[in-house]
Design a protein that fits this description.
- This protein has helices at about 5-10, 35-50, 65-70, 85-90, 130-135, 155-170, and strands at about 25-30, 50-55, 80-85, 100, 105-110, 120, 140-145.
- It has a 7-stranded parallel β-sheet.
- The longest helix has 15 residues, at about 155-170.
- Helices cover about 30% and strands about 15% of the residues.
């Protein structure tokens, strides 16, 4: 069990206990390493109505104060799901329409069409996504344009950029 103060426990239902419900959009973080990034991404997901899926191992305790602080008080409004590994994620999300956000993508993120309920998969901050995931989705790899002398954007910023493009294409459902 996670080490939570009794007063916080009511605001933190264990992700495995949540029923999987359809979302307008799904953000998937493959083995995230930095708690503040995950907290910021959780906040973005809660505000936009996207679900957040985390694939273990995580580089931090999900209930780390840095993750909680960067997510503000939105955690109880977030559809959050945690999986033991990639296979567990696939088994629990059959038929998922998956897109990879990667510096190895050749298609700009604005040129891809994201249907309602799409799963946007982002890799680790330091290593990105593993080759076996890249190989499984060669035609669904997108990248955010950037100057060639740089490696990558911050993960939380990348998620926000692509989430808002996908939601823009869908007419910003549920947002005002």
């Amino acid at each position: 069990m996670h080490d939570l103060e009794q007063t916080d426990a009511a605001h933190w239902p264990h992700p495995q206990e949540r029923p999987l419900t359809p979302a307008v959009l799904n953000v998937v973080l493959y083995q995230p390493e930095i708690p503040a990034n995950t907290g910021n991404i959780g906040r973005t997901c809660a505000i936009t109505g996207a679900a957040l899926h985390l694939i273990e191992p995580l580089g931090f305790d999900l209930f780390d104060r840095r993750a909680r602080r960067s997510g503000l008080d939105y955690w109880d409004k977030l559809a959050l799901y945690v999986y033991h590994d990639w296979d567990d994620f696939l088994a629990k999300n059959p038929g998922a329409t998956i897109f990879l956000a990667t510096t190895k993508g050749s298609v700009p993120h604005t040129d891809m069409v994201y249907p309602k309920g799409a799963y946007l998969v982002f890799g680790r901050e330091t290593a990105g996504l593993p080759d076996f995931i890249h190989q499984a989705y060669p035609l669904r790899r997108v990248r955010i344009p950037m100057r060639p002398e740089f490696r990558s954007y911050n993960l939380a910023n990348s998620v926000a950029v692509i989430v808002f493009e996908a939601l823009r294409q869908q007419g910003f459902p549920g947002l005002e």
